[in-house]
Design a protein that fits this description.
The complex is a heterodimer of chains A (158) and B (291). Chain A is an alpha+beta fold and 158 residues long. Chain A has five helices and five strands. Chain A folds into two domains: 74 residues, Beta-grasp domain (Ubiquitin-like (UB roll)), CATH 3.10.20.30; 68 residues, DNA polymerase, domain 1 (Orthogonal Bundle). Classes of the chains: A alpha+beta (158), B alpha+beta (291).
Chain lengths: 158, 291
Amino acid sequence: MQNILVNMTVNGEPISRETAPNRRLLDFLREDLGLTSVKEGCSVGECGACTVILNGKAVTSCLILVGQAIGTEVVTLEGLHGEDELDPLQQAFIDAGAVQCGFCTPGMILAAKALLDENEEPDREQIKRSISGNLCRCTGYEKIIEAIELARDRRLNK
Amino acid sequence: MRAFNFFSPETVEEALDLLSQHQDSIAVIAGGTDLIIDLNEGGKKPDYVLDISQLKELDYISESDGMLHIGANTTFATLEKNELISEYYPAIAKMADYMGSPQIRELGTVGGNVVSASVAGDSPTVFLAYDATVVLQSKRGTREMSIEEFNVNRGKFRCQIEDDELLIEVKIPQANSNFATAYRKFGKRKSLAIVVLATAMRIERDRDNRIKDARVTLGAVSLHPMRSPKIEKALIGKKLDMEELEPVLQLYTEEIDAAIASRPSVVYKREGIRGLAKGCMMDVLEQYGLV
């Protein structure tokens, strides 16, 4: 097996690492780059805990081989906040009480971010649809939807 | 995940070279939403993995020569957001809308869904109703076949693709104002649900708003989606009016009885199919502006 050279931008930083190709983007981000906000839940693309933003789109990193992500721009939860300030979505999740056990939270926030970056004024139905690939087994969906609405409104300065 | 060598060709030509060279133990990856699960769980152990997801030349949706051409690398998210599709190909739009989750729609491709030819897949049922043709390419050349012929098991694949071939395009006859198409499905929930039961139809009307031609398909009731000549025949000549169409629902039930008689779920599906079929009929009437 030949190793591959992975060049990509992760949370704004260019990175270049050699790795075996029989690994998923999820493994590479968690184990090699230490980005542990990327959670492994179901491993079959159903729970959304491993969601990252790749070239602007929310995708499940358990269903991408690391070699397929060469040359892409990846954003994980670690890339959202600034120096002293949280991303409006992160702050809204705290303020709305949308975090229970927290395992689904990074994926939920990133799925919501991909939505808000594409559509700055989504309605409740569009918000629900945007997180339909993310499971919260504490079942805190109402608060999560409220948090996304709050972040939407704050981003629009409402 | 077992070790393999990874190829990411930059052109279709390069991909076909690699495929032909390593055809005994190579897996083609596009969206990866099925394959990576198999690799990860050890169900598939190829020596080589060929990534075609970067081949932009296979990512297109266009109309020409009386056909709609969908490149194999078109994702379901692209289909979902495409105006041509949402305006003129409602059954395809509906299929994209039903498919997976937002994350899966960004990854999964039309080519991958068609080649996987899963019993519980969405696209084969829809493309069969649209009278689709698949375009296959290898170093040996290009060939085309109807999706009906393509959807026949062959060795390790659930369709007629050869080891050295790539599916590069799905094409269907171009829409016109006499066509109406619909697709309805049951899954266990709204998102991320594979097909439990599905049906699609393409209706062509005549000047008097009678059904001139019909293609009706049933999904997840046999190894591959099937057409129902019986239902199609019953629909042809009927006036496009729910009262006149409704008696045909009984034939849907009979088809389900015949197809899955021995399955315990037949008692639900013989009823459920009527709801799906009626929904399709309503969609068709709506597209014609007849409701």
